[in-house]
Amino acid sequence: MKNNWRWARRALLGFAFVAPFLALYLSRTNLALALAPIFVSHMLLLYATLVANCQWWGPVVRSFETKDAEVWLTIDDGPSPSHTPKILDLLERFNARATFFLVGVNAESYPHLVTEILTRGHEIANHTYTHPSGSFWCAGPRRIAAEIDLCAELLRSAPDRPERFFRAPAGLKNLFVHPELSRRGLALIGWTMRGLDTVRRDPELVAEKILHSVRAGAIILLHEGHRVEKDPEFNPRCLELTLAGLAERGYACVIPQPEQLSARAAGK
Ligand SMILES: [Zn+2]
Prior knowledge:
Elements: H1 4-26, H2 31-50, E1 70-78, H3 84-93, E2 98-102, H4 104-109, H5 111-119, E3 123-126, H6 141-155, E4 165-166, H7 177-183, E5 187-188, E6 193-194, H8 203-212, E7 219-223, H9 234-248, E8 252-253, H10 258-262
Parallel strand pairs: 1-2, 1-7, 1-8, 2-3, 4-5, 6-7
Zinc ion binds next to β1.
């Protein structure tokens, strides 16, 4: 059913408003019981915020509509001088297209890589200006707006490129994020599967985790620019193994059209 998230959002905020009054009422009879509504309300607010693909605050695109064997490859945290050129070569070798969720400060440092991504037929999208993964989840509306707008400003290098997508750092989003995104016409993109390539050490395991549950319409999340010093080949290797596995299974990597996303962003 469409717009489920609107009810979830209202219910969450409504309960958070009512909980202190309920606690006050209950405290007249039982102090321990009085804390229950406050506790439950906080847990629900945290769940909606910290569970990446949870849609209680608003729609999160977690897959796309397709009848064909195709997936949407998304690569976060670039551009990276150590990885982006290798990644572009790999994508070309496997005839794959991808969306790069770029961090504004990186795009500012390496504008030629942003141009290169676009020139080679891929898409760029907004992944905040500074990638504040530890604090974005508790940021206020003004800071969230600044993170989105400063990144968007840097990505506007291509004149006719429509701005469509945003991904929150680590996928964490609070109640202020969706209103700021809808004001700017941006969709919040989650994922169907990720290889946990920021945590795992073995590229085979990263690719295996993705390929194990891959299906048509899946959004795949990988990263670039990580472990550049310790293991510079790690991120490209994860991508290479994933691309090889996808090709073996007959999946094409495409960038979905807006109509393929709309139904999935409507609260399903
Ligand atoms: Zn990120």
